[in-house]
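fold-stage: in
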Amino acid sequence: MPISLTELEQVVREAGTIALTYFKDLKNVAINKKSPRDFVTAADVAVEAFLKEKLSQICPEYGFWGEESGQTANQTNRWIVDPIDGTHSFSKGQYFWSISVALEIDQQLVMGVVYAPALNDYYSAELGKGAWKNGELIQVSDETSLANSMIGTGFACLRQYLTDNNLARF
């Protein structure tokens, strides 16, 4: 692996510090609409630029695909980044947003992290090794009955644009 989860965590937590700086001063953050429910903030742009620079220093031969800046060369091995996943929540001062980074090698996701700086929750996973929340191993539920299960979605803000039921998306 070109980078360890520990090294990636340092980079993403640093990006989280940048995001929190903007989050704590939202009244002065530029917010633009890409579409009626799709926003981009100065924080999105700054966090993505930081991650692009840092990850390119660590793995200069790898491509980069950012939600705001698009794709660079070498899309076989690349970083996939959503700098503020949940920009709408972020822009409204809600805590439910995160920084998402994945590493794809030869069309296979091999590593990924999701950091929610406002909640200080950090999720990481590595292919064949497991997944962790704040350093503790996590796993999916072994519940087989839908009646005894809980399903959470993030589709509520899209309801007016979706003609079908969200359950069909599963």
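fold-stage: in (second)
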Amino acid sequence: CLLSNLFNSQSLLEQLYDGYDEEYDCPILDEDRVVDELDNQMREGGVIVDYHGCDFFPERWFHIVFVLRTDTNVLYERLETRGYNEKKLTDNIQCEIFQVLYEEATASYKEEIVHQLPSNKPEELENNVDQILKWIEQWIKDHNS
């Protein structure tokens, strides 16, 4: 998760919340504060951002965007196992059906840098990691010459 990896302390993480959403049973992220907090680190480069949305992140931050896609049956089981309430579960499934995150990514960034990767089985996770690592290696090679 983006937040747990980039922020060292729970108190700093809590400063980025702007309330609590009872309906979805989760904290509300103050997106402006997140961008302000991450901007210097992102300018330095070498950061991988892992988050379930992207439209509030500045375009200048990214050279490539990967959107993980999951079959709705697999997704339903994952979210049910996590204990998501019915509204949150249904909304997440609908987002996957209607490709909301992919469309958000292509609307927020140049379409040629947005890629979809399947995320249904452990083998696909391994393939995705391999593909992302190959992209990183190639990007480094292309930009260090």
